[in-house]
Amino acid sequence: MADLRDMQDHVAALVARVSPAVVEVEVGHATGSGVVISEDGLVLTAGHVGEWTGRRVKFTFPNGKTARGQTLGVDEEADAGLMRITDPGPWPHADVGEMKRARLGDWTLALGHPGGFDAKRSLVARLGRIVRLTPGLVQTDCTIFPGDSGGPLFDMYGRVIAIHTAIASSTIENFHVPITEFFENWGELTALPPPPPPPRPQAYCGLSVVDDAGGCRLDKIEDDSPAAKADLKEGDYVLLVDGRRIEASAAFNRWIAESGPGETLQLEIKRGQNVFPVRIKLQPQPRGVK
Length: 290
Hints:
Blueprint: H1 2-18, E1 22-27, E2 30-36, E3 42-46, H2 47-50, E4 56-60, E5 66-75, E6 80-85, E7 95-96, E8 107-112, E9 124-134, E10 137-140, E11 152-154, E12 159-167, E13 174-178, H3 179-184, H4 186-189, E14 203-204, E15 207-212, E16 215-221, H5 226-229, E17 237-241, E18 244-245, H6 249-257, E19 264-271, E20 274-281, E21 283-284
Parallel strand pairs: 7-12
Antiparallel strand pairs: 1-2, 1-4, 2-3, 3-6, 4-5, 5-6, 8-9, 8-11, 9-10, 10-13, 11-12, 12-13, 14-21, 15-16, 16-17, 17-18, 17-19, 19-20
């Protein structure tokens, strides 16, 4: 019991010390997490949070303070991203560690803003251990969720050793980009940003989905939408999209976001005890619809 109390006290003190540097990252209509690593506002995050260089970013600190910035560089292969706060500092920041001494079973602390910044809840902290170490990837049992992407993984000294990356539908599959990937590609990440690509037209299917015990459930179907024309019903479950299994609403939403207007998706739907295929043709996003 004494050891557990000591560990609890250590983790509580660690969270209080490093959490001021952990930010929500808002880029366009999407949110993720990041960690400030320098007084002048360099922010580590996942590459898929910023997507490309030169984008405007809004940062929100755990105390609710906001700052403006931009994306700098992205390494798509490693899923490593770098941003900068452009408002004048100084800014609270965390120390950066290294992975040379990391071992299986080491205790780690995952921080982030799952679901986005929430003043009532603030930062979410999860304690766990390293369960897998491979070149370019760290796996822990620190449970992470959508919105945590780009958040920091700390060692027990309060040093950033990795950044949250792939978030699976299973809560035991929690992956992180090791800090070495940022060191090895620092020149690419800090390069001057090229002009951003034109915005991609957004696809519209006219439905919303939620998670429940049965999986990804259709919650609302809009009138005269592609979903309505495909005869989808509220309460249906999405099992597959183009042959890929869908186990969570986040996976379905991301699939739609990565598709384009005019594309036809092949869905496998469960309604009651019946399972059947449905083809849905996506349309351009109607004006005023998000």
